[in-house]
Design goal:
By secondary structure, this protein is α/β, with parallel strands linked by helices. Among the domains are: 262 residues, Glycosidases (TIM Barrel, Alpha-Beta Barrel); 74 residues, Golgi alpha-mannosidase II (Immunoglobulin-like, Sandwich), CATH 2.60.40. Helix content is 24%, strand content 17%. The chain contains 13 helices and 20 strands. The protein has an eight-stranded parallel sheet with strand order 11-10-9-8-5-2-1-12, with helices on one face. The protein has a five-stranded antiparallel sheet with strand order 13-14-15-20-17, covered by helices on one side. Strand 8, helix 6 and strand 9 form a beta-alpha-beta unit. The radius of gyration is 23 Å and the shape is globular. It binds 1-deoxynojirimycin.
Length: 513
């Protein structure tokens, strides 16, 4: 790619859900100043880049993914000035920060939507995907109907209060379906550029883009949406060549073609990501299968791996917490994998201490089952685990009530903690070109229902063999390579004899070969 910011080659990301990270003013909800106060923690962990979930004005019916003003920070987090200060504090520490851009839909409370509901034609009439009669629903999409004087149904993208912005239809078939190059869709696209321009000029380093693959409607194999993003790539190349872009798309072969630098593997889509940590028998649970994941990964890597970064997250605000299904030392093996794969790693806040999924939650801000993965960070052993000075019932989401809940303070003190293991793994990754984001990968052992998983990472002359065995029992595979020096081991060393390598149960190791 013409412009890929060089810092992405060594980036290790930390995802911050701003509601739940650190509350500086005692109102029970996290804020920008709270985040600033914890930047040194993130830096110490070894992460050098941040993705922060949406922080714009919103009625918070979907935790901020329902924006009502793209140009103003949500007052509960602070002002635009506070956000600017967060950017500069991040930069002072040699780190970078991505905002979360929600291009597909707004809140029903957005002024654009209110204007578009009016029967008289105006600037926003074509800003959203409307049919031209209330009796016709947009086919293949859910819709909002009967709440406007305008005669029509409006497509929605996710919840029914998130009307779909209009980027056009790939092949329009009905009179109300506009082509991508009609005036309405082009105005929407240009406004998206204005929003990006605004925040990039204030100092953010790029965006994570929500539902990036779903913008053009009735698309064929992503062709329309890819061409839309190519147009945005031209704008970025011209005006903000240093801006970094990561998509929530889950199909790197498409998103990277559209000009994104990185794409996530997700808990939906074709990647088999769930086979690793989140299914009935996850591979990292010790009795699963990694072969389908690896097969798909190789396919994607071949078609997209050279163009950009395929990112494997530890989790995110939409998935069950990693520690809900992967326990004890196996969590360390999960991180040994996440931090030795190519692409930029993304650590969801709290996963580094094994923050637990909090069971039996009522839904908070459209979280539903996701709510248990969004509870406030646990910093220390004071009230509310140091997250907030508010009364516990005022907290954004109830915290893990367990007496032995993990905290940063306890884990920093314990040399064998998950937190210290994650730190160690990040620093090893950062010191090795082969293990870092652009080092190449070749799988050596990833057989159906078998352990261990083994791969070779390479950059220039450096070659590192990675062997990870989450099963309880020793496991071996045929391998002609001679491990020379251990760069990292957990749970004991591998042994190599007669053309086989054997790894002990619950172990991981990185070796120079
Ligand atoms: C994906 C986001 O990650 C999720 O939290 C949100 O609810 C939907 N997109 C809708 O914007």
């Amino acid at each position: 790619m013409k412009n890929s910011p060089s810092w992405l080659d060594g980036a290790v990301f930390y995802e911050i859900y701003p509601q739940s990270f650190m509350d500086s003013n005692g109102d029970g909800i996290g804020d920008f100043n709270g985040i600033i106060s914890k930047l040194d923690y993130i830096k110490d962990l070894g992460c050098n880049a941040i993705w922060m979930n949406p922080c714009f004005e919103s009625p918070f019916g979907d935790a901020g993914y329902d924006v009502s003003d793209y140009y103003t920070a949500a007052p509960r987090y602070g002002t635009n000035e506070d956000l600017k200060r967060l950017f500069s504090e991040v930069h002072k520490r040699g780190m970078h920060i991505l905002l979360d851009l929600v291009p597909g839909h707004t809140s029903v409370e957005h002024r654009w939507f209110k204007e578009s509901m009016k029967p008289e034609r105006n600037e926003f009439t074509d800003r959203y995907v409307w049919t031209d009669s209330i009796w016709e629903e947009p086919s293949g999409m859910a819709s909002l109907r009967g709440i406007s004087d305008r005669d029509g149904s409006c497509a929605v993208n996710f919840f029914s209060h998130q009307p779909a912005l209009n980027y056009g239809f790939y092949k329009p078939e009905r009179p109300w379906q506009q082509p991508m190059d009609a005036a309405g869709p082009i105005a929407t696209r240009e406004e998206l550029k204005n929003i990006m321009r605004f925040w990039l000029s204030l100092g953010c380093d790029g965006f994570r883009v929500d539902m990036a693959g779903s913008l053009v409607k009735h698309d064929e194999n992503g062709r329309g949406t890819i061409s839309l993003w190519k147009n945005i790539r031209e704008f970025l190349d011209e005006e903000f060549p240093e801006a970094a872009m990561v998509s929530e798309w889950g199909e790197p072969d498409k998103s990277l073609e559209g000009g994104f630098h990185m794409d996530f593997l997700l808990h939906f889509g074709p990647s088999h990501y769930n086979d690793l940590f989140r299914c009935e028998k996850p591979f990292f649970g010790g009795k699963g299968d990694v072969s389908e994941f690896v097969k798909k990964y190789i396919e994607t890597y071949k078609s997209a791996g050279e163009k950009g970064l395929i990112c494997i997250p530890s989790g995110n605000h939409d998935m069950d917490r990693l520690s809900r299904s992967i326990k004890g030392d196996r969590l360390k093996l999960a991180f040994a994998f996440l931090l030795s794969m190519p692409g930029a790693p993304f650590i969801y806040y709290g996963d580094e201490i094994g923050l637990r999924y909090v069971e039996n939650h009522v839904s908070v801000e459209g979280g539903y089952g996701r709510t248990g993965s969004r509870s406030p960070m646990q910093w220390d052993n004071t009230a509310n685990a140091g997250f907030s000075s508010a009364a516990p019932e005022k907290l954004y989401i109830r915290q893990d009530p367990a007496k032995d809940r993990p905290t940063v303070e306890n884990q920093l003190r314990d040399g064998n903690s998950l937190l210290n293991e994650v730190k160690r793994l990040i620093s090893i990754r950062k010191s090795s070109p082969a293990l870092s984001n652009r080092g190449k990968i070749e799988f050596l052992h990833a057989e159906k229902n078998e352990y261990p998983l083994a791969y070779l990472r390479t950059a220039g002359d450096e070659k590192i063999l990675v062997v990870i065995n989450p099963s309880d029992n020793p496991a071996k595979f045929e391998c002609g390579l001679k491990p020379r020096e251990a760069v990292y081991t957990f749970g004991g060393e591998i042994t190599s004899s007669e053309g086989y390598i054997t790894a002990l149960g619950i172990s991981a190791g990185f070796y120079r070969v």
